[in-house]
Design brief:
Rossmann fold; N-(1-d-carboxylethyl)-l-norvaline Dehydrogenase, domain 2; globular
């Protein structure tokens, strides 16, 4: 299959290598040329971990028009805060329907992408979908080297309408088809995304360590103490209640982790401590990291907005947004995804969220 992977970060590098090893023709695009310079000179990604091998990428480029020349499927792996801008650019280059999958979309990412695409190009109707989470637990080591610690099991995927998700999965490239399962609704991929629950509070509550020039620590096993794990579970209860109110019950973070990584445990803390995929993942060295800059404005902010529209207090999640906004002096609610704008402009497909 002819596939384009957008973004050469952790998951983009992993996906490009994985699909190439599976025999697909992969184009890898990255906005900043200097961050793919080594691959432009020698387009081989060295992959280690649960997937091993040297993947010679068919085409590496920072020219988006070239990257979007008639792909059968496009996988967007960039941070969610770039989705709106990418949608606008995609609209200028895509001339016929194709499938665009956001990995992941965060909260209602597919809706935001469709809205911005159609502002520029109302004539082409791509299939826009989003995944619940990133498939790969991985880290980019260098520009041309990635280590994949684990592949998650049964990652949910959904289009905006959610009415033909099995066909979407059936059409995925080999190597991915058995890793994804069709969601019943986009609610399950958007509200079901646990990244915003697992990332935001721990990094903020460990600010001293994160900003220390002397210390380094394991993000999950050290940074998430029993107390912080308990706080995360309070956030998670609010997330689960939003989905319940919307008529699409979802897993708790504990249930998701046990299923995804095939783990056992009675609470979030014990499950995290037993997850071997987390054993070597070090914490970020700055609060200006996607755990804050992506997961709060494109995850927690629209989640809180939906919850409040449904009459829920959203107290714990609100505290995290407030803390991040105060520490970084950024109004994340103002800068984040505008729920009402999406609903008003996307029409009936978006109104189903609050019905």
């Amino acid at each position: 299959m002819k596939v384009t992977v957008i973004g050469a970060g952790n998951s983009g590098l992993a996906m490009a290598a994985h699909l190439t090893i599976e025999g697909h023709e992969v184009t890898l695009w990255n906005r900043t040329e200097k961050n793919i310079q080594d691959l432009l000179e020698n387009p081989i990604i060295h992959c280690s971990g649960v997937i091993n091998g040297d993947a010679r990428i068919a085409h590496v480029t920072n020219n988006l028009k070239d990257a979007l020349l008639d792909p059968e499927m496009i996988f967007v792996t960039t941070p969610a805060f770039s989705h709106a801008g990418l949608a606008t650019q995609f609209a200028s280059f895509i001339t016929k329907p194709t499938t665009i999958i956001l990995n992941p979309g965060r909260t209602f990412g597919a809706l935001e992408f469709q809205y911005n695409f159609h502002k520029v190009n109302p004539f082409v109707e791509p299939i826009i979908a989003e995944t619940q989470t990133i498939l790969y637990t991985c880290r980019k080591v260098t520009q041309n080297q990635v280590e994949i610690y684990a592949l998650k099991h049964d990652v949910l995927v959904s289009t905006i309408a959610g009415d033909d998700n099995q066909t979407l999965v059936n059409n995925l490239p080999t190597g991915l088809r058995d890793k994804f399962i069709p969601a019943n609704s986009m609610i399950e991929t958007s509200i079901g995304n646990v990244g915003m629950i697992m990332h935001c509070a721990p990094i903020l509550l460990n600010t001293g360590w994160v900003e220390s020039e002397q210390d380094d620590f394991n993000y999950y096993r050290t940074g998430i103490s029993r107390t912080i794990a308990g706080f995360i579970e309070k956030m998670d209860k609010e997330r689960v209640e939003v989905a319940k109110k919307l008529g699409h019950p979802i897993e708790t973070a504990v249930e998701w982790m046990k299923r995804t990584y095939e783990l056992e445990g009675d609470d979030l803390y014990s499950v995290i401590q037993s997850n071997e995929a987390y054993a070597t993942i070090q914490a970020p060295r700055s609060l200006e990291h996607r755990y804050v800059m992506e997961d709060i404005p494109t995850g927690l902010v629209p989640l809180e907005a939906v919850g409040k529209e449904l009459g829920l207090e959203m107290k714990t999640i609100g505290l995290v947004i407030d803390l991040a906004s105060t520490l970084l002096e950024i109004d994340f609610r103002k800068e984040g995804r505008n729920l009402h704008e999406l609903i008003e402009e996307n029409g009936i497909s978006a109104r189903m969220i609050l019905n």
